[in-house]
DNA sequence: TGACCCATGTAAGCCGTTACATGATTGG
DNA sequence: CCAATCATGTAACGGCTTACATGGGTCA
């Protein structure tokens, strides 16, 4: 069983989900395509870690709602205390940033502007997820307690929001340097 | 030519390096093992994007110092303005954090403590890199200008430092919640 | 009317990791 | 004395991406 399999069990330990939902919701933690997830779910079912009920829908395709079994929970618990691998990051924009001095000033601004737009979207999504989580738990004021199954999701959304904000601050900082040093070539900055 | 190939060219556009150094220095931007990098360098050489000089050393293995060619620079410049792919993140600890409510309190603290230690190391390394960069550019006070080939490295180190600090703050925050809510079970927190 | 969302699955191929291979020097 | 660092390479395998496949409903 690979790491992604444990990740799927982790999501299912909070609540049942379809393969499609798992595919969407695991993205911020572990990027994976549906073509990888569906076969893994089949394997997890054969191992007795998950089970599913088929749901027939009108006007939408049928779906399988997966939930975790006792076997799956046991596997999860024995995986938790193991040493976690170092995070893997691969970021093409950072490679481009490394040789940013090769780019023309407006190209450079464009690259940073694109990243800013990307993380503005991310930030909006994470904020929506936080609102959704507060609805789901009914705790509009405080935070889900350590024993709540939503505790993990809560601390991860907070982390993601802070991360996106930092990314945006970095973009602003770089943009300022680009603007400052290019006072001579009087192009309007991009909107 | 895949993204990693362009990454290698990006590093070489600043200064020549050995395959070994490239392997080490590209890690924060794009995780890759030497077994992937050496064959790519051979391919880039066949394509005429890089060239190398063999250096025989006493008391150390021989090495190849690679540098970028005009062809390689042209390839880099045409790659720069292309839309960059979204960053890829795969973080096993976040999967564990998602189901942290399943863990025993001391297990949970241990997981977070390990991550804190990891990023304290990262932070120290990035700070050392910043000092090294200031030595290399001779600019102990200000920052390398937009036209300096070290500009990209500079903004990336600053970004990495801020990222590591944020990660550490998140760890502290989570630790506090774990400590607070476990007042009843009077275990000593880990050192 | 063309793109996007829901929803699941398979197959081919590239990307990335692990393991095999070698070997001298330095530091704990 | 064992581990780590420097330094380069190959081979096998598993993980991940891209493409193929299907098909109704919604929105601009």
TrEMBL record, chains A, B:
> What are the boundaries of the signal sequence?
none
| Superkingdom of the source species | Bacteria
Transcription regulator PadR N-terminal domain span: 8-77
Record-annotated Transcription regulator PadR C-terminal domain positions: 90-178
> What's this protein's name?
PadR family transcriptional regulator
């Amino acid at each position: 069983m690979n790491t992604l399999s444990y990740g799927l069990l982790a999501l299912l330990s909070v609540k049942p989900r379809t393969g499609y939902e798992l595919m969407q919701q695991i993205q911020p933690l572990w990027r994976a395509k549906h073509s990888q997830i569906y076969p893994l779910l089949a394997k997890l079912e054969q191992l007795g870690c998950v089970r599913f009920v088929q749901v027939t829908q009108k006007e939408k395709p049928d779906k399988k709602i997966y939930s975790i079994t006792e076997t799956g929970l046991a596997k999860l618990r024995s995986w938790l205390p193991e040493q976690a691998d170092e995070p893997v990051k691969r970021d093409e924009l950072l490679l481009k940033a490394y040789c940013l001095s090769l780019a023309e000033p407006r190209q450079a601004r464009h690259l940073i502007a694109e990243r800013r737009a990307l993380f503005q979207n991310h930030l909006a999504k994470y904020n929506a997820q936080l609102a959704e989580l507060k609805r789901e738990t009914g705790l509009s004021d405080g935070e889900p307690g350590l024993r709540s199954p939503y505790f993990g999701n809560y601390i991860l959304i907070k982390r993601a929001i802070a991360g996106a904000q930092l990314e945006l601050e970095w973009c602003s900082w770089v943009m300022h340097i680009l603007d400052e040093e290019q006072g001579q070539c009087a192009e309007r900055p991009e909107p």
